[in-house]
Specification:
Radius of gyration: 29 Å
Structural class: mainly beta
Helix content: under 10%
Strand content: over 45%
Oligomer: single chain
């Protein structure tokens, strides 16, 4: 047990510990791993409310000055430009070391607090702050102070077998950073701030310029209400313990995270869980950059699970914007993403329960073996497939949903797709029970607005999909909501209105596809048995969203044809090429 002082003083503002204590009980959601497993319980953090209070009368004062360091109190010694902390306790630092170091080396069980009260420390051969041995270490950024830590490109180690410390601020013990001051870390050798155990950032304004990773907590990285600006040659925020079950996670409650990274902006082995905050993230040079296949430059990445509950995200990534080898779940937040690869990718399961997601550009918008849309809104632009449900095995003619292991479930929410390749490409089956789907699909005849191998069952919701007619497919006749496949004899110009109204004049659909089109698939609860007229051209004074008009009046069009709905599937006109009434083989998911 730590020896806590009984006379306590609160340093710097209100304590924000809800995440730090709550994260002890966090688990990965069931089914988030690649195979069905029991939930993984995350390792406990070292957070304790008493960490943030101490006896203000029991602080050793240390004034830094090259060759003339003064120590007023016990537990610390000075030798030249090096201060060594040898006992648990509280130590306040002020002043400058042009080439010096603070070393923590104690066998005590108690807490070591390093209170930075306006310091500038540089070191030409090692880490300016090095916690070599301790129970727990806290760096306190005193109110309204500016603190700067800088290392050099060249570290000198005692032997060739040693490679630590390897960060400008380096701890072999659990590390906490806290306070209302600021800290700038210039890491010219390797990482900026690193803990070989757990790292908690409870508050503070922190800037890290790092040759490699910006901020790294091996067992976990937990952040609450801090403001971080990171420029990293490697990853921005990182937790990478792959050996201990439940370790290697990042949990963020709130804050501002302005991260520019050569690698991944945020990367964790086990999970990334974000509750709120602002996240301007750039990885690998951004969405217009090109990286080697062996490199990773994702916006947010985890091997097992990524969960977004809230926050505002602006992500520009040379790789996937959101990525997990297991599951990605979005429950809320506002996400604007651009990617040179996938907008959102999960090997096993991708689920959207809420939030407002905009993918301004990507190779493929959404990709996973199983994609489930329950709520929220997704608007995406893709240079290949908009939505790709693929297990990566390449698919094939006649493949069943079970053998493909790929599904798209649309139960609610809003999905708008603008795709150069297939609008929605599923190597298995599609089931739609609710929600709204608008697809502005391909113009090239070897792609389709809808492409599925094991059927599309429609039992509810609202769907319109426009595109080429060469590979067009119909929905399943086992659907319980009627659908229409309308094939035109000639390609219609982009922006040409297509208008459907019932025989009594009730408007059912007014749609202006954004690209040239020759085929439209439509299903709506308003499409019931009866006779309908199809008009082309004309205009509407309603409000258009992704080409679909609501309200207002339609006028001036030319009657193209009429049709009668008498069964679940109604087909008007014929389409060229393959695909009528059945599935076709799929490529299996784009770039690796």
């Amino acid at each position: 047990m730590r020896n806590k002082q009984r006379t306590l003083r609160l340093i710097g503002g209100a304590l924000l510990l809800s995440l730090l204590l709550g994260v002890l009980a966090l688990t990965l959601p069931a089914g988030s791993a690649v195979s069905a497993q029991e939930p993984v319980t995350l390792v406990e953090t070292h957070a304790d409310p008493e960490d943030y209070v101490w006896d203000s009368a029991d602080v050793t004062q240390i004034a830094l000055s090259d060759g003339a360091i003064t120590v007023d109190g016990t537990g610390a010694t000075a030798n030249g430009s090096t201060v060594t902390i040898t006992a648990a306790g509280n130590y306040s630092f002020s002043g400058t070391l042009a080439d010096g170091q603070i070393i923590v080396d104690t066998e005590d069980d108690g807490f070591v607090r390093l209170i930075l009260n306006g310091v500038t420390i540089s070191n030409s051969s090692s880490a300016p702050i090095y916690a070599a041995n301790a129970d727990d270490v806290m760096i306190v950024l005193a109110d309204s102070t500016t603190n700067v830590i800088t290392d050099s490109p060249n570290y000198v180690f005692a032997s060739a077998e040693e490679d630590e410390p390897n960060a400008a601020v380096f701890s072999k013990a659990d590390l906490t950073i806290y306070g209302n001051g600021s800290l700038t870390v210039n890491a010219n050798y390797n990482d900026g701030i690193a803990s070989k155990d757990g790292l908690i950032i409870a508050s503070g304004t922190i800037t890290v310029n790092a040759l490699d990773d910006g901020v790294r907590g091996k067992d976990y990285l937990v952040i609450d209400t801090a403001a971080l600006t990171i420029n990293a040659g490697g990853d921005g925020l990182k937790s990478d313990n792959e050996e201990d079950a439940g370790a290697g996670y990042i949990a963020i409650t709130n804050g501002v995270f302005n991260i520019t990274a050569g690698g991944d902006a945020i990367s964790a082995y086990t999970s990334v869980q974000i509750s709120d905050g602002q996240f301007p993230l750039v990885s690998g040079g951004g969405s217009m950059a090109s990286i080697a296949d062996t490199e990773s430059a994702k916006g947010i990445k985890s091997d097992l699970s990524v969960q977004i509950d809230g926050g505002t995200f602006t992500i520009s990534a040379a790789d996937d914007a959101l990525h997990s080898n297991g599951s990605v779940t979005v429950n809320g937040g506002t996400l604007t993403m651009a990617s040179a690869d996938d907008g959102m990718h999960a090997d096993a399961a991708l689920t959207v329960n809420g939030g407002a997601i905009t993918i301004t550009n990507a190779y493929e918008g959404l990709e996973s073996a199983v994609i489930t849309l329950n709520g929220g809104s997704v608007t995406l632009n893709a240079s290949d497939d908009g939505v790709n449900a693929s297990s990566g095995d390449g698919g094939g003619f006649g493949m069943s949903a079970a053998s493909a292991g790929t599904y798209l479930y649309i139960n609610g929410g809003y999905l708008a797709v603008n795709a150069v390749g297939d609008g929605i490409d599923v190597n298995g089956a599609i089931t739609m029970t609710g929600g709204v789907v608008v697809v502005n699909g391909p113009t090239e005849q070897m792609n389709g607005a809808l492409d599925f191998d094991a059927g599309f069952t429609m039992t509810g919701g609202w769907l319109v999909a426009a595109g080429s007619a060469g590979m067009v497919q119909t929905l399943n006749d086992t659907s319980t909501q009627p659908s229409l496949l309308l094939n035109f004899t000639a390609t219609q110009a982009a922006g040409t209105l297509v208008h459907l109204q019932s025989s009594d004049g009730t408007d059912v659909l007014t749609f202006a596809p954004s690209k040239a089109y020759q085929s439209i698939t439509f299903s709506s609860p308003e499409l019931t048995q009866g006779t309908y007229d199809v008009y082309l051209g004309g205009s509407s004074d309603g409000t258009a969203t992704n080409g679909v008009y609501s309200g207002g009046s339609y006028t001036g069009g030319t009657l193209y044809t009429n049709f009668t709905v008498s069964s679940m599937i109604t087909t008007v006109g014929s389409a060229g090429g393959m695909g009528m009434g059945g599935g076709r083989g799929a490529r299996g998911g784009g770039r690796p």
